[in-house]
User: Fold Carboxypeptidase Q from Flavivirga algicola.
Amino acid sequence: MRKLKWPIYLLGIIFSINTYAQNDAEVLKKIYKASLTNGKSYDWLNYLSNQIGGRLSGSLNAEKAVNYTKEELDKLGLDKVWLQPVMVPKWVRGFKEYAYIESEKGKRTKTTTVNICALGGSVATPALGLKAHVVEVKNFEELKTLGKENIEGKIVFYNRPMQADLISTFEAYGGCVNQRYKGAVEASKYGAVGVIVRSMNLRLDDFPHTGSMIYGDLPVADRIPSAAISTNDAELLSTMLKLNKSLKFYFKQNCKQFKDVLSYNVIGQITGSEFPNEYMIVGGHLDSWDLGDGSHDDGAGVVQSMDVLRLLKISGIKPKRSIRVVLFMNEENGLRGGKKYAEVARQKGENHVFALESDAGGFTPRGFSFDCNDASFNQVLSWQPLFKPYLIHYFEKGGSGADVGPLKTKTNVLAGLRPDSQRYFDHHHASNDTFDAVNKRELELGAATMTALVYLFDKYGVNPIANGKQIKK
Amino acid sequence: MRKLKWPIYLLGIIFSINTYAQNDAEVLKKIYKASLTNGKSYDWLNYLSNQIGGRLSGSLNAEKAVNYTKEELDKLGLDKVWLQPVMVPKWVRGFKEYAYIESEKGKRTKTTTVNICALGGSVATPALGLKAHVVEVKNFEELKTLGKENIEGKIVFYNRPMQADLISTFEAYGGCVNQRYKGAVEASKYGAVGVIVRSMNLRLDDFPHTGSMIYGDLPVADRIPSAAISTNDAELLSTMLKLNKSLKFYFKQNCKQFKDVLSYNVIGQITGSEFPNEYMIVGGHLDSWDLGDGSHDDGAGVVQSMDVLRLLKISGIKPKRSIRVVLFMNEENGLRGGKKYAEVARQKGENHVFALESDAGGFTPRGFSFDCNDASFNQVLSWQPLFKPYLIHYFEKGGSGADVGPLKTKTNVLAGLRPDSQRYFDHHHASNDTFDAVNKRELELGAATMTALVYLFDKYGVNPIANGKQIKK
Assistant:
C-alpha cells in the first residue's frame, strides 16, 4: 500500500525511464544483430590485411590503404568523405635483419643464429654488420651502476620481461616499453655501440616485435642501432651469457630514415540533424608496422570505426550530432595524423564533444575506459545495464587512445574500446599480427559495442549537467 | 557526527567484514599470481595434447591419459589419488571418411569432393559407400511436411546454421544440436538412407565437426549412417541443390561400435582439516573426440582442475573441507564417468556440498554460472567485488556442467566456469581443437578463477543460512 502514496510525478519519471531504457535496449539489440549478421568489418579487414598488408607510414601500402578505405567510405552514402593531408615520417626496414651469437669452445668458434628485427626509427648497422661483447641489464639504473667502464664498446641487451602477474597486458607493456623506446639514448650515454631489446611479448616464441624508438637530441653520428630479439632468443642469449660472459653478438640491419612524405587521414561524416556543429568521432589508425598485416594493430580499429557509421545507417538511426569516422595516419611512429586532425579542428573551431578510439586489437570487447569529467562518467555508468546482455562490463576512468588524445577539452568525453587484452601482445608489432588471428565475431562485437556507445551519447548528449536540456528529457 | 551514534557492535561487524575482505583480496591476489607465474596447467596440456592427443573413450590414448594424469597427481603430494573404474562405450572411426557431390552437366558427370566426418555413434555406410539423392531441410517439422514420398531412399541434409546474433555461442549451439543428435532417428522415420548435418560451427571453414548422436530404440537394421559436413561445404551443397535438385551425394565411412570396455575416472584429494566429510570437487573430462587433440574440449578443464589443488597448496591454503579433483571419463559419448562418480558418492553417503566443472574451453574466464538456491547465490554475489580486479564479472544462475550434474541436491552448489565463448565452436569437436589454439594466460586465468571460488566456498561454507554457523563467523 505504501507505493500508492508515491507522488504521481515520481511514477511518471519512473515510467518514462523504463520506456527510454526499453527503447534503448531494442536499439542496442538491433545494432548488435546488424553487426553479427550483416557486418562489413571482417570483409574490409580481409582486404586490408590480405590484399594490401602491412601499412607503414610513407609506404606504397599505406597509400593503397588510404585509397581503399576512402573508396569504401564513398560507397556508404555518407554526407561527406574526404582526405586530410598530413606529412609523415618515412622509415624503411630494407633487407631482412640477420643476427647470431658467437661463442668460442676451445679453439672452435660456434655461431647460433637468432631472430631479430630493427626497431622503428633505428639507424642501420655498418654495412658489414656490428659485432661486440654484450652486457645484459634489466633497467636504466643498472646502466648507471655498471658505468662507462663496463659498457663502452659493447652491445647493451635489455632483458626485463613483461610482468606476467598483471591482469592487464597493457599495464605489463607500460612497465617495459621504456627499454625499447629510450634504450638506445640511455645506452649511448655510456658508450654502447648497439642495443638489443627483449621483445614486448608475454609468450616465449620466435617472433621479434618491432616498435618505435627515439634518439632525442643525440647527434646523428652518435646514434646506435637498436633491434628487438624474440623472447625465446632473449632467454637463450641470457643463458649463454651466464655461461660465457665473453661471447659476442653480431647483427646487421639495413634500415633508413627518409625525408617526410605526404600522406592522409581518411575521414567520413554523417551530418547531424539537430546539432550539426557538435562532432562525435570514432577512429583507429590506418598505418601499421611492416612485419605482419597489421590486422589487430590497428586494422581492426579501422574497420570497426568504418562500420560504426554503416551500422548506424542500417539500424535506421539518424544522429542528431555529426558523426565522423577518422582513420588516422602514422600513429605508430609519429602520431602526425592525430595531431593534424586536432590542429585542423581547432583552427576551424569545431566542437568535438566525443571521441572514441579502437586501438587495442580486434578481440572480444570487455568495455571502455574514459577520459572525462564525473558528470559524463556517471552518465555512462547509468547505461551499464543496457550493455550487460552483450557481456560488456568494464567501464572505468583511464586513458582513451593516442590519436584522439590531442582533442581533449575540459568538458568533452574521450573513450577507448577495451577488448580482452590477453592475446594482444602475442601479435603486437610482429609478423604474426595477421588476419587469421582475428575472430570474426569478436571483431563484430567490438564494432557493435562502439556503435552502441555512439548511439547513446548522440541521443542523450555529452556532459548533460552542463547542457541542462538533455537531463530533463 | 551521525556516525558516532552507530552502535559499537555495528562498527565491529563493519570492521570485521572489511578485514575479511582485505584478507580475501590478498589471498586471491596470491592465487592469481601463482597461476600466472608458476602455473602447471599449460605444461600439462602440452603433454596431453601433443604427446598423447585425442582421447576418445575406450582408446589407447584415453588409457594413456588416465595413466599420465594419475602420475602427475601422484607428484603433487595430495592426501589421496586413485582410479575409479567405469565401463565406457568404445566407438572407432576407422579409415578416414570420403564424400563427394555428383552432378550431371549434359552427358558428363562431375564430382566435387567435400569434407565430412562420421558422427560419434554412427554406423558405417555399406562397404562401397552410399550414394543417393539429397533433400535439404532446416528442422524436423520440414521432414513432416515433406513426408515419406519426398524423403524415402534419399539422404537428408540438415542445414540449419547456428544463430549468429546470439551473444552466447552455447545458446546458438543449443538451438541447432538436435539436428546432429537426433537427426538420424527422425529422418529414418521417413525412410531416409543417410544423414548429413551441417557442422555446429559459426564460422565458414573446411573443418567437419563431429559429436554424439543416438539411434534410441531403432533396430540395428534400421540405423542409417550420419556424418557432419563442414560449413563451407554445407553452403556449397545447398547452393548446388538449388541449381540442381537431382544431384547425388556419395559418402563412405568406416566407423564401428564395439563392446563396452573398462576405463577410469582419475581422482585426487586434499582431505579437509575441519570438515573432512564435506566434499568440494573441481573437474573436467579426460576423454575427448578423436579428430583433434581435445585441447579446448576438455584438456583445458582437466589441467585447470588439476592445478586448482596445486594452486591451493602453493598458495599456503589448507582447506577445511575435502577438495577433490575429478577427471571424468566419457563425457562426450555416454557420460558414464559423471554418472559413476555420483553413484559411488551416493553409495558411500559422501556429502558433496560443492562441485565446479570447467568444460567450455580454455579461453579468458568471464565468470561462472550456478545451479544452487538463492541463499548460496546471494553469498556468491557478495564476493563479486573480490573478482573485479581479475575482470571476472559474470555471475548468473544457469547450468553447471554435464559431469557434475548428477551430484545435484537441494542444498549443494553446482557451478560451471564460463570462459569467453566466441571462439569455442571454431574448434569444438574438430581437427583444429589443438594446443596452439590455447593461450597460456587465458588458460591460467581460468585455473586461478576456479581456485578463487573454491577457496571462498571452502572458507565460508556452502549454504550459510542452512548451516547457521558460517554466517556468524
About this structure: DSSP finds 15 helices and 16 strands in chain A. The first helix of chain A runs from residue 8 to 38. Residues 1-6, 9-17, 466-473 of chain A have pLDDT under 50 and may be disordered. Chain A has two domains: 26-91+259-472, 94-254.
